[in-house]
Amino acid sequence: MTEIRLFDSHLHLSDQEFEEDRSEVLQRARDAGVSELVTVASDPADARRAIDLAGASPGVWATVGLHPHEAAAFSDELLAELDELAARPEVVAIGETGLDYHYDNSPREEQRHAFRSQLQLAERTGLPVVVHSRDADEEMAALISEFAGRVRGVLHCFTGGDELLTAGLDAGWFVSFSGIVTFKKFDGGEAVRRVPADRLLVETDSPYLSPVPRRGRRNEPSHLIHTCRRLAEIRGDGPETTAEITRHNALIFYNLHT
């Protein structure tokens, strides 16, 4: 068993990909040093599953939110449901929310409305927000700047450009990197180095984005060490240091440090 302790700051433990062996996945995570994780929701039904999993598993917490892919389903009633779920003790953040102009699975205006409403929910509840942004840097940067000082957030699985990174850092937000940093075509090393040590997070986003050397297979939290090692290499740090820093940051971001 490794002595390194890691915090998987973003995964989807409620996903059907884990239905057959979820308990084994959690055990492998613990054996690999992943002592805490946050399972992130995509809609209210998913949030309820995440909350149930968190309640049954030590070291696991949940979020509540509506993914931009699902933004067409947003309504006042759905927002009220998220508001109610956000009060559960297992819940540590609002999200996954944001803007996705790559797939455009929901109309952009509806994505913007759902995202702004969830930023306001985060402000009301005092919870941080977990943000998905793809091909929407300009609008995302503007919204982050608008809510700066009102909402704490993380740009999860960051692959954006300088404008978005600058807006996030200027607002005091955290930035999280996934297994994408291990891919041969990854060209975001400068972004990795620009993130201050006290704002850096690491994630699997499992069951997606398996890092090298697990690429092509289902991802799971036990694979987090590969991403951590690559982040450390890019930043010129040791993996133990990167693991310690990112775990400490996740505890602070999710208000679990007390």
N-to-C CA distance: 27 Å
Q: What class, by secondary structure content?
A: alpha/beta
Total helix count? 9
- What portion of residues is helical? 40-55%
The CATH topology is TIM Barrel
The low-pLDDT segments are none
Broad CATH class:
Alpha Beta
On the 0 to 100 scale, the average pLDDT is 97
The radius of gyration is 17 Å
**Biggest beta sheet summary:** 8 strands, parallel
Could you describe the 3D structure shown?
This protein has 258 residues and is an alpha/beta fold. The protein has one domain: Metal-dependent hydrolases (TIM Barrel, Alpha-Beta Barrel). It contains nine helices and eight strands. Strands 1-2-3-4-5-6-7-8 form an eight-stranded parallel β-sheet. Helix 1 links the parallel strand 1 and strand 2. Helix 5 runs parallel beside helix 6 and helix 8 crosses helix 9. The longest helix is centred in the middle third of the chain and has 18 residues. The relative contact order is 0.16.
Give the topology, please.
Layout (H helix, E strand, L loop, with lengths): L5 E6 L10 H10 L2 E6 L4 H13 L3 E5 L11 H11 L4 E10 L7 H18 L3 E6 L2 H10 L6 E3 L6 H9 L3 E4 L11 H6 L5 E3 L21 H12 L3 H15 L5
Parallel strand pairs: 1-2, 2-3, 3-4, 4-5, 5-6, 6-7, 7-8
Helix pairs in contact: 5-6, 8-9
